[in-house]
Design a protein that fits this description.
By secondary structure, the chain is α+β, with helices and mostly antiparallel strands. It has seven helices and four strands, in the order αβαβαααααββ. A two-stranded parallel ribbon has the order 1-2. Helix 2 links the parallel strand 1 and strand 2. The protein is globular and about 50 Å long. This is DDE-1 domain-containing protein. It holds the Pfam family DDE_1. One of its GO terms (cellular component) is nucleus. It comes from Acanthoscelides obtectus (Bean weevil).
Length: 184
Amino acid sequence: MPPSIGKNGPIGASYKCSKNGWINSDLFVEWLHHFGSNVKPSANDPVLFVLDNHTSHISIEAYDYCKEKNIHMVTIPPHTSDNLQPLDVTVFSPLKNALYRQYELYLSTTGHQKITEYDVAELLNNAFMQIATIEKAVSGFRTTAADEFWQNLQYTKQILHPVSKSINLVESDRSILSEVSLSI
């Protein structure tokens, strides 16, 4: 993508897209590398990464990278992100609303008829700066069921068989996922 696509966008952001506009495994692994290089997890300071169970998040490449870089991925059950992913409630939803307001403001003040791909990064940055605070992220754990859920989460190291026919495990001794048992 041309560098101008990120003009006035969030500092340190990376811009990629797929042919159909949806995330895929390759883009997710690229994003993981970007994430890992910025967060810099270590054996003494690992990162817990909570995400939905979209098929793009589950691949041997993602697993290998996360294992190597001390990123512990936990996927949550389908249709539970509103209750278990605090950022969905306290950051992403307000961000979507703030971005919509930025779109309206841009169109009304510039006289343009449409927003181009070269405008999006700056509008996203403006919206993000309005709503993203550490306090909001932390409060998300208090306003959702996530607080109790994550406090009571217990991990067990049991190999799960792939739930998707699109995942083909070549090496039988490599586990992509560990079973998560809940005691709520």
